[in-house]
Amino acid sequence: MLIAMASTVVFFTLLFLLITNAPGWPEVKATFFNWDAFKDSFPEVARAFLLNVKMFCIAEVFILIFALMLAVVRSLRGPVFFPLRALGIAYADFFRGVPTILVIALLGFGAPALQLQGIPLSTTFWGIVALVLVYTAYVSEVYRAGIESVHPSQDAAARSLGLTHLQSLRTVVLPQAVRRVIPPLLNDFIGLQKDTALVGFLGAVEAFKQSQIDAAATFNYTPFVAAAVLFVSLTIPLARFTDWLVERDRRSRQATGAR
Amino acid sequence: MRRLVLLLLAAVLALAASGCGGGGDSSTEGEAQGTSCTKGDLNLVNAGQFTVGTDNPAYPPWFGGDEKSPWKVSDPTSGKGFESAVAYAVAKKLGFNKSEVNWIRVPFNTAFAPGPKKFDVDINQISFKPVRAKAVDFSNSYYDVNQAMVVLKGTPIARAEGIDQLKPYKLGAQLGTTSYDFIQHRIKPSKQPAVFDTNDAAVQALKNKQIDGLVVDLPTAFYVTAAQVENSRILGQFQSTTKEHFGMVLEKGNSLTTCVNSALAQLRTDGTLQNIQDQWLSKVAGAPVLH
């Protein structure tokens, strides 16, 4: 304990000294860690951050639903369902393969360019659609891993009781599968939160775009730090919450086992 | 083991104590002595070369000539287009011939990054602002600029006749431009304006009607309407209340700034700057002024 503490202190003191004694440090400090610039831009960036929050909250709801549907489709057995399975695989391959920023750019500028009657022009709308498409592909893989981690004997037992495949999936397999994948689901949720910053490419003024505006106006990068602080202030508590959830789940399962 | 750690700790503390006293003795060189602007004495990134930065693609009317790899749309090395011509004229005054001018790509965002610069001067329609001058050196003005509004013909905004009537519309600007400041502080629209990373993205949004009006500097507005967006027109220009102007960006405290300024002053007095402006920005005069 003492050694851990001492070596931590030594390590960080050395790191701190190394950075603050670097020849360029005063300049870096003035450009990245300028308190006045931080105070100036933080309220604006925080206001813009509400758009990020709005985007990832809406997107996450659709992602969780669509991804589960996609995972279930991919877990269907039997030759009849082959076209559906193939479509599911193609979808997941495509949207995991194309960089998110490209999906956002193609949809956000491409869809409105069709000039179809009634098609939404809002960049926020298309940004959310793009994020839902991409993250549905990722999250469906997480669900699928969860489904496959449930031992086949569970399904076999359910079927032997007379449940259909879908009934067994719904009442036996999925409840266990989803519970197991909560940590990776939250992991992807964190990824989604950060990727909302990409929607700024379409012109939407979210936190990162606002910090870019402030940085470009003042030639000072401190607003980026303000944006980073805001993102981190959401993702770190979520990560700790995930840890806590995993730990609780582990304990409760051990307790059940001992009974 | 524990003794080793304590020893290390002591060493660090000693280092910290000695480290705190140092520093703070490096800011006063190069200020006092008058700067010589003969070619051999210039403070250059690459000896014997005048390294000029700008962003890629290089758009008219700032840059001209045919696209030549790696440059897109236009060619800064052609000497054609307003900023290219100004850069070569300044280089010539400083004693460089055309082959000694070397162009490099500098994205706007990196023009003001801390640390040593890769360019001697960056010329990229960058407006002078006092707060920006804390981070970099600006040359004196090489162009006094007005902002302008580009709209699609036949849309509701195209009937607006004054700044007041622009408030209800969704407006857009390019990141890093003072056009955004203009929207926020002079027009004060009711809808959050959109801000685009690139000229291309802004133009696409205007074409898609995702924004009603695009605010850009006047010469760029002429290029957008002439070459980039069919069926668009300049609604009008806005008179700058702050004497807005473009300056070249140099590393903070660079002795070269003085020399570039004296070159610019000579170009202004002998009429060269005006000639370059007449040649490349002649069309710019005609836009109506919106009040």
What tags apply to this protein structure?
heterodimer, A: 259 residues, mainly alpha, 82% helix, B: 291 residues, alpha/beta, D-Maltodextrin-Binding Protein, domain 2, six-stranded mixed β-sheet, 8 helices, elongated
Which CATH top level class of the largest domain in chain B fits? Alpha Beta
Cα-atom radius of gyration of chain A: 24 Å
Spans where pLDDT lies below 50 across 5 or more residues of chain A: none
Radius of gyration of chain B, taken over Cα atoms and rounded to an integer in Å: 23 Å
| Helix vs. strand class of chain A | mainly alpha
Helix content of chain B: 25-40%
- The percent range for strand residues of chain A is under 5%
Helix content of chain A: over 70%
Query: Most extensive interface, residues per chain?
Result: A-B, 41 and 45 residues
The best one-word shape of chain B is: elongated
CATH topology of the largest domain in chain B: D-Maltodextrin-Binding Protein, domain 2
Number of helices of chain A: 11
The mean pLDDT of chain B is 86
**Structural class label of chain B:** alpha/beta
Topology order of chain A in helix (H) and strand (E) letters: HHHHHHHHHHH
Description of the structure:
The complex is a heterodimer of chains A (259) and B (291). By secondary structure, chain A is mainly α. Chain A has a domain at 50-206: MetI-like (MetI-like fold). Helix content of chain A is 82%, strand content 0%. Chain A has 11 helices and no strands. In chain A, helix 3 packs antiparallel against helix 10 (207-218), helix 7 (152-160) packs antiparallel against helix 8 and helix 10 (207-218) packs antiparallel against helix 11. The model of chain A has no long low-confidence stretch (mean pLDDT 90). Chain B is α/β, with parallel strands linked by helices. Chain B folds into 2 domains: 42-144 and 246-285, D-Maltodextrin-Binding Protein, domain 2 (3-Layer(aba) Sandwich), CATH 3.40.190.10; 147-238, D-Maltodextrin-Binding Protein, domain 2, CATH 3.40.190. Helices cover 31% and strands 16% of the residues of chain B. In chain B, the strands form 4 sheets. Chain B has a 6-stranded mixed β-sheet, with helices on both faces. Chain B has a 3-stranded parallel β-sheet with strand order 2-1-3. In chain B, strand 7 (171-174), helix 4 (178-187) and strand 8 (194-196) form a beta-alpha-beta unit. Chain B is elongated. The N and C termini of chain B lie far apart (77 Å). Mean pLDDT of chain B is 86; it is low at 15-33. The interface between A and B is large, with 41 and 45 residues.
